[in-house]
Here is the input.
Amino acid sequence: MSLINEPGIEAEAISQNRPLQDQPFDFLPKELRKSVFIDGAWILPLIQGGKGVGATNGTTAGAWALENAGGTIAATGASTTIGKNSRDISYTYSSLTRPERHEEMIKWSIKGCTLQVQIAHQAAQGRGRVRINFLKMAGGSMHIMRGVLANTSLKDGANMIHAVTMGAGLPSEEDAQICADEGVYLDPIISSSMALKVLLKRTYRKWQGEFDKRIGAVIYEDPWLAGGHNGITSRENPDEPQNPYDRVRELRTIMNQNGMENVAIVMAGGVWHLRDWQNWLDNPEIGPIAFQIGTRDLLTRECPIIDEWKHLLLSMNEGDVALNKFSPTGFYSSAYKNSMIRKLYERSERQVPYTLQANKEQSEQINGAGIPAKGFFVNPADKAKTKNWIEQGFTVAQRTPDKTLVFVSKQDDRELKRIKTDCVGCLSTCKLTTWSETPEKKFSTGRIPDPRVHCIREGLLGAIEGEDLDNQLIFAGHNAYKAGDDPFYRDEHGNVFIPTVKQLIERLLTGN
Here is the structure.
């Protein structure tokens, strides 16, 4: 039986601080009156999507927890200021070297995340769950996690944080141990049952037979529906979406085989109306289930993104969100196809393979900006292409790690060099700047910079700070277009209506 049992009415009464007889539950579908046991407590089957770099903070997470749901704080790049509308998250860096700026970034992130957790903990008033979300590929993620958990521990041995969620890379055994030492769940974000098998054998192997004591929920992030980074494997075709029901059913089978029958799965990606998921409820093939709400959470009053971003979501059309591989992490991600993303598509099209020595196929020599004096060699058709690109103003050839040349403008060439100079090591390894946080490797991946990807830090910061959204990184789920046609976001006069978190949760529980 999914949702384990049915104490939901009591849980919701507690969440609203009202006596049971005052609860207007008659209008709710029966299945949604149930609570799910997640991260050590019975809560509503609703989890706030984590997102990143200030788009979810202590105010928003606290509001979700107050309604007896799961609130989630973006741990990396968390704001060091207080206030629900605060977007001042640009850290000030004084160091001249990348390793030193990397250490500054870690300290700022610990300070900011600690503050946001404290805000959420106070706002939640002991209800719901407060979670922090990490991109595993984030620079210094383990150091940040250790610092924040130490700062948020309570005198009774508990922690203000109930769980750490981690995706875009599999959590390590050390990550799990850090959480275990602080009495906090480590909930993996995965996109396949294969990933869970690896995790159980590697990350959680110390707790064989008692995985439910370390995993408070398993978040299934659908590669073809969720916004942001996802875990499409090399064996899967990004252009051929698979049925999420089949993938989650397979995930539940693996969990049941490992004594995790009562551990909830959180469906992340594509969730707009809960009525669309009714066949997942009380379904033995799915088991205990909750739903992550990512894009809809952006359309709340507590969310700190600017009004222009919220109106942008309300204007999206189907197909406006693209699954792409422009992230410097190397993972696929889903983002709104604005000028920034379209520019990266166009840049990748201005690409030809090359060789250092002439051969039968690549016999034509090319010279120019970015190419050594002795030249590179391409085939005749590609030489004609490069000539045309140069005539259009894309005069600089940049090498890629895949032995191709990408042609960019002089302005873009300068911008790419500036990004590398200003790098703070926000990722553990970066394809764009070749940064690596490993001192033994001299803080370098040792590879050629890849000009086909974006700077994730600048793109996300620019978006949260409201700088020209058409040229910033706007992560979104593939069902974001549904906002424009949802009557919930219009008042009786047809004007845009942005609900509070409380109003959104009440609406979700109607199934709509």
About this structure: The longest strand covers residues 129-135. Residues 332-471 form one domain. The longest helix spans residues 98-124. Residues 1-27 have pLDDT under 50 and may be disordered.
